[in-house]
Amino acid sequence: MRELIVKLNTIDGSAAEALRVIEHFDTLVDQRCSALAMLRAAALLADCPVGLDDPERGLRVGVDAAGRTMTVLDAGTASRQVERFEDITVWLDREGPAWPLDHLVLERFARSLHAVKKSRDTNPAVGAMRIACDPDASPADRDNALRRLGLGSTITVVASHLADAQRMPRGLVIDEQQIHLFPEALTDKMIPVDLAAGIHTCAGAEVHREWQYAVTALRIAVDVTTGKPTHVRYDELGSTATIVDNIDADTAARSPDVRRVIELQSERPWVIPTLEALLGHSSIRETARLQNLHHSTMRQRISWLERQLGYPLLSSSGCARISSTLTLWRIMTAAQRPHPEVPAMAANCR
């Protein structure tokens, strides 16, 4: 197709642009990109807000021209353009007159979403996982699906980022996460140790309600000491899970305490590891020993941190504040991952 595009460029520029749009979405389908990755690609291509509504996926979302998720979807422009294919609806909100290729972008976007969804459903294991996680599936269908997957009454759900799909077995793609169902006894070989993963063990009969818990754990899957991806088990989060479910990365990043800790960390790389160590140990001497420091050095660091942060670290209120700050920092840091790569167009389709 590229040879045809080159030839058409010399004859009919608009026809060449149309073929570029078609090739762009064909490539997204070939790469089995997620719905959200396609949505961002369509918005960047159209250079305006784009949205989609797919009831079967349970997905209704819109992004602006830069690919950022929008919180308000129904307040579109008066000239909103809508395209429907099967049960999928997509739309485009452009200020001013429509661009010549707007209709083609929407049509290819909707068809590509449908094509990827159908291709995923043809994989028997993925299809079984979809049934197991579907809240509308009957208990009998769910049990049959789990049996086809070779799973027993207790299973382990693992959520990973779609960007890491090449490092994991093929799983059920939901938004930008990939969901896997494993036996209860999860071994280290099943998940690379340096891969961000949220893990939750539950009864197979409850997986349709509880697979989201693994996604919650994934949203905080960063090691506080190193800042690198890690594995997080939902059951170990306790009430922290409520914070993770209700605070997004942008809100976390706006916290004054988080901003201050980031500033201090940029000056002295031991700041966040020290705060984490203080939460996990009851005495300064024990904290110092585990940090390979003399206890007097640890006391100096604590005094310096208290002056910089403006509150006593070792008090009950100080520990609570450290804990909430580090939780917000993890939410923010875990979200700072690249989205799955999508092929770039040379220019917007004006």
Question: Secondary-structure blueprint of this entry?
Answer:
Elements (H helix, E strand, L loop, with lengths): L1 H10 L1 H18 L4 H12 L3 E5 L4 E5 L17 E5 L2 E5 L9 H20 L2 H10 L5 H10 L5 E8 L10 E3 L2 E7 L13 E7 L3 H12 L12 E3 L6 H7 L2 H5 L2 H12 L3 H10 L3 H7 L4 H15 L6 H20 L15
Parallel strand pairs: 8-9
Antiparallel strand pairs: 1-2, 1-4, 3-4, 5-7, 5-8, 6-7
Q: If you average the pLDDT, what whole number results?
A: 83
Please outline the major beta sheet: 5 strands, mixed
Proportion of β residues?
5-15%
Q: Helical element count?
A: 14
Give the strand line-up of the largest sheet: 6-7-5-8-9
Question: How would you classify the helix and strand content by structural class?
Answer: alpha+beta
H/E element string? Answer: HHHEEEEHHHEEEEHEHHHHHHH
The number of distinct β-strands equals 9
Poorly predicted runs are 1-13, 339-347
Shape: globular
Distance between the termini: 21 Å
User: What's the gyration radius in Å?
Assistant: 24 Å
Our count of domains comes out at 3
Helicity range of the residues?
Answer: 40-55%
What is the compact description of this entry?
It comes from Mycolicibacterium senegalense. This protein is α+β, with helices and mostly antiparallel strands and 350 residues long.
Overview of the structural elements:
The longest helix is centred in the N-terminal third of the chain and has 20 residues, at 102-121. The chain has a five-stranded mixed β-sheet. A four-stranded antiparallel β-sheet has the order 2-1-4-3, with helices on one face. The protein starts with a helix and ends in a 15-residue tail after the last helix. Helices cover 48% and strands 14% of the residues. The protein folds into three domains: 1-119, no CATH class; 124-244, no CATH class; 247-336, no CATH class. The radius of gyration is 24 Å and the shape is globular. With 350 residues, the chain is an alpha+beta fold.
